[in-house]
Amino acid sequence: MATSLVTGGAGFIGAHLARALVQRGDTVVVLDDLSGGFADNVPEGAFFVHASITDERAVERVFAEHRFDYVYHLAAYAAEGLSHFIRAFNYTNNVVGSMHIINACVRHEVQCLVFTSSIAVYGAGQLPMREELVPQPEDPYGVAKYAVELDLRAAHEMFGLKSVVFRPHNVYGEFQNIGDRYRNVIGIFMNRLMHGEPMPIFGDGTQTRAFSYVGDIIPALAHAVHTPAAFGEVFNVGADRDYSVNELASVVADALGAERRVQHLDARREVQHAYSDHSKVRRVFGAQPETPLAEGIRRMAEWARVVGPRQSQAFENIEVTRNLPPAWQG
After folding, report:
1. Are 233 and 224 contacting, i.e. CB atoms less than 8 angstroms apart?
2. Is-contact 102 152, C-beta < 8 A?
3. How confident is the model at residue 330 (pLDDT cuts 50, 70, 90)?
4. What is the pLDDT of residues 1-19, one digit of tens each?
5. Rounded to whole angstroms, how far apart are CA atoms 118 and 137?
6. Which of 11, 22, 16 is nearest to 184 (CA)?
7. With the C-alpha atoms ordered 324, 326, 327, 328, is the resulting torsion angle positive or negative?
């Protein structure tokens, strides 16, 4: 029986992955500081450690106590647009914290580390986004993710650490923090509608994304440690079809049985269109599931009705306020 660590396992994707590993029979340890997740997301049967990956001593204690075979590193603060205004926080959590995890994997001879990166590493104008493209990240979040990818490559060359990198995109579904006002547009839309407020759209809503149901990306992540052909490789993972934000708003309103009310805000600096090619992940892992958008959002809406709306909290440590979108102020 394998022993696996899931960092960020009380968060959104991590909670789904931890469930899959428990069901597989792994002994699962979840490490999470609950800054964006919830303790009740941790599945029954998993051990929960309340600590941050930025706490090097806490990380070392967990590794020394459990002797992990595999590590799934999902802990991050994944607010791409906000990352321009929280550079120090972004790099501390997404780079320095990741270095603590990589160091511990090397010291304790972990067999394989699976890292969730992001299509934010590609930047703009590289469509469809393919793994062989040279990353050109345009925001600190993408820079941070690519830095970790490069460090994993260096750790393999120096120490032989095996790793697999996934670049998911626009993932949604149950356990998402719908109270986060800075990220996860579907969660924001649902939370606002349940509060009786309009859905906020930056710009005219014609920007497009391929929204990916969380259950569709979990199988590849879970099986990566048992797929030698994946070691040392990078994979895009997620949905193939893209939708405009305007189309998305209609689907979310329909799923909640609510009136389609939107509030158009000033456009912010962001990639206009983002979708990736998934032929590589299919070649290595086989056919991947793809839940239709309406069905995935229906499942998420059912869950959201049960947990109810959450109170959106403002980020308290904005480092730069210049050009901060008015909707994110206060």
Report:
1. no
2. yes
3. low
4. 899 999 999 999 999 999 9
5. 10
6. 11
7. positive
Residues paired with residue 213 on neighbouring β-strands, in sequence order:
172
Q: Amino acid identity of 84?
A: H
The residues carrying an active-site annotation are: 141
**For residue 133, how many C-alpha atoms fall within 13 Å in the half-sphere facing its CB?**
22
Q: Which residue, 211, 130, 133, is CA-closest to 169?
A: 211
Cα 11 → chain centroid: 9
- If DSSP codes are grouped into helix, strand and coil, which group holds residue 237? strand
Residue partners of 80: CB distance under 8 A and separation at least 6: 118, 120, 139, 141, 142, 183, 270
List b or e across 30-49, with b for residues whose CB sees 16 or more CB atoms inside 10 angstroms: bbbbeebbbeebbbeebbbb
Instruction: State what percent of residues in the chain have pLDDT above 70.
Output: 100
Q: What span, in angstroms and rounded, lies between the C-alpha atoms of 235 and 243?
A: 22
Per-residue pLDDT tens digits for 140-157: 999 999 999 999 999 999
- Please write down the long-range contacts of 38-47, taking CB distance under 8 Å and 24 or more positions apart: 38/10, 38/175, 38/177, 39/10, 41/9, 41/10, 41/11, 41/12, 41/15, 41/175, 42/9, 42/10, 42/15, 42/18, 43/15, 43/18, 43/19, 46/6, 46/9, 46/18, 46/22
Asked if 265 and 327 touch (Cβ cutoff 8 Å), the reply is yes
- Say if residue 273's pLDDT is above 90: no
Check residue 272 and give its pLDDT. Answer: 85
Tokens at 310, concatenated: 């959450």
* CA dist list (Å): 247 to 80, 84, 326: 22, 27, 24
Chain mean position to CA 286: 22
Length of the chain: 330
